[in-house]
Amino acid sequence: MANVAVYNIEGKQVDTIELNDAVFGVEINEHLVHMAVVSQLANKRQGTQSAKTRAEVSGGGKKPWRQKGTGHARQGSIRAPQWKGGGVVFAPKPRDYSFKMNKKEKALAIKSALTSRVQADKFVVIDKFGFTEIKTKKMKEVLDNLKVKKALIVLDKKDENVTLSARNLPNVRTILSNSINVYDILKYDTLVITKDAVAQIEEVYA
After folding, report:
1. What value does the CA radius of gyration of the chain take, rounded to a whole number of Å?
2. What is the DSSP annotation of 5-48?
3. Residue 200 and which of 75, 118, 136, 178 are 20 to 30 A apart at CA?
4. Using CA atoms, how far apart are residues 51 and 47, in angstroms rounded to an integer?
């Protein structure tokens, strides 16, 4: 089992914590990680894009000119795709882009993403934030103390002082431990996680 340092908000080491290899030390499955990211992005798509085919645009019922003898190329309708105002070839239609992964695949993808952060030394455990007020400047100071710029902050419980303090920082996102996902773990350079959140994640995925 890997041992990682536990820091306080001043950036000083106050403890160490032993990570469960069943969650933070698995063999990384890149295929499932990729699948999880694609699934999450696909599930976000509205799928409402729509355009009309030549069968759906109005007009064009009459042949524009006779078949032969005009010197023009033959035409059957002014709503064919080559005409201005004509229909679209293979027009996009509303569709559902989402697809499902089973629970074991999702769990292994998350464990792989967490393991990759531990192996890359981008996994920072903090004992607690303990903010008494909403202060963006304070959050910036904490991240500077931890030498972190682009961070996903994982909390063990809802804390508005922390969430709202981080909201205006462009490269920071806060999330609860029960909402972690592969996309966010990989999108943000460093995972800043509370000690209690580590225990919660191990309880769910171990």
Report:
1. 27
2. EEE-TTS-EEEEEEPPHHHHSPPP-HHHHHHHHHHHHHHH----
3. 136
4. 12
Digit-coded pLDDT (tens) for 175-185: 999 999 999 99
Q: Are 153 and 176 in contact (CB under 8 A)?
A: no
Domains in the chain: ranges and CATH = 3-45+97-205 (3.40.1370.10), 47-96 (no CATH)
Quick one: pLDDT at residue 206? 80
Distance, in Å, from the CA atom of 3 to the CA atom of 125, rounded to the nearest integer, reads 11
Six-digit token string for 33:
């990680």
Eight-state DSSP code of residue 156: S
Tell me the whole-structure pTM to 2 decimals. Answer: 0.82
Burial of 193 (0-12, 13-18, 19+ CB in 10 A): buried
Residue 2 pLDDT: 78
Q: What single-letter amino acid sits at 161?
A: N
Instruction: Enter the tokens of residue 120.
Output: 């890359």
- Measured between alpha carbons, how far is 18 from 6 in angstroms, rounded to an integer? 10
The answer on pLDDT for 1 being more than 70 is: no
Which two three-digit tokens encode residue 65?
Answer: 């000119």
How far from 39 is each of 15, 89, 102, 185, 202, CA to CA, in Å?
A: 38, 28, 11, 15, 24
